[in-house]
Amino acid sequence: MQEWSWKSFFSSSDKGGPVVEMNPQGSTGADPLPAPGIVRSLQACATASGVFTILAADHRDALRKAIDPAAPKSVPDARLIEIKLDLVRQLAEVASAVLLDPLYSAAQAIVSGTLSGQVGLLCALEEQGYLGDARGRKTTLIDGWSVELAGRLGATGVKLLFFYHPGAGAAAAAQEDLVRALVADCRRFEIPLFLEPMSYSNNPKVEKGSAEFAALRRRIVIESARRLGALGPDVLKVEFPLDVKHDPDQGSWADACAELHEASPVPWTLLSAGEPYATFQDQLRIACQAGCSGFVVGRAVWQEAVSLSGAERARSLTEVARPRLARLREIAEQHAAPWHTRYATPTVEPTWFRAKDSPGTRAAARPGGASALRHGGRRI
To answer: What is the model's pTM?
Structure first.
């Protein structure tokens, strides 16, 4: 692909960000594998062929709203737990891993026996929403929760969803510092970090769903993958790089996904981001053909079931959601690039465990152990 300059990436039309000049480098495929413990966990999160087919059920307030749009705050915690366990019970065996939250699903699914030991477990780290104003969003972590505790629970990965705009100045820098700290923490405990940057407009006059933002979205998503992937996460969980409501041309979709793959230094997966199932199916096929390593899907698969109860919900999950998830898995298995193809396999010496760094361990972007790392006053 022809290289092009990012010199005018953030013009005055997008307000508030410094001008950056970068050229796509892409992955050489020769980066060393992560540490053995991280490799083992990534294997546990993927299919036998190395493709991620992950079911997302870590939603909290968004799930309350889906259950009762008129009065989401009236939905009790017990209802969230009940629905999340139903999602795991009916769908997890079709997935390579499930993404759950520590409040209403992860421990409950383990203790109840709902989550099989043959399915990987990712745990969310982030608190809902953000601090700061809408143009400079900062993420906080769930109070009292940590990478270490996720590892003790038996998680095979952790996930951080956070808002990020490369042109948001100090707010972007603060988000990058959070990522560096988490990368160091995950290296210490050898737990994979799945990083999920969510784009937003830093211009108060431009809404994310608008045609104006759609014209910027490709550049924002791809530049975010380039910058954040370089900080050392193990997998990126990425929005589709185009707003397909404003750009329905699948040729453009393929070109944008190819550019995203070239820019990302690490394996990447596609998130459904609330897209309709039929749309996400097409997005996934094109993304996987471009080099994507699978998907993390939630509402696109199960959204109709959560407003139902009892036998009706079980029927919707088995007759609608389950076939959808199975079809997405078929697409990924047929077209996706296994996550490990982005790495070169090192030689493992008999004394590997005595070394300061295990074979293939990528140096953390910032040194330090979990006990010393804090963000916003909270240990992470």
So the answer is: 0.86
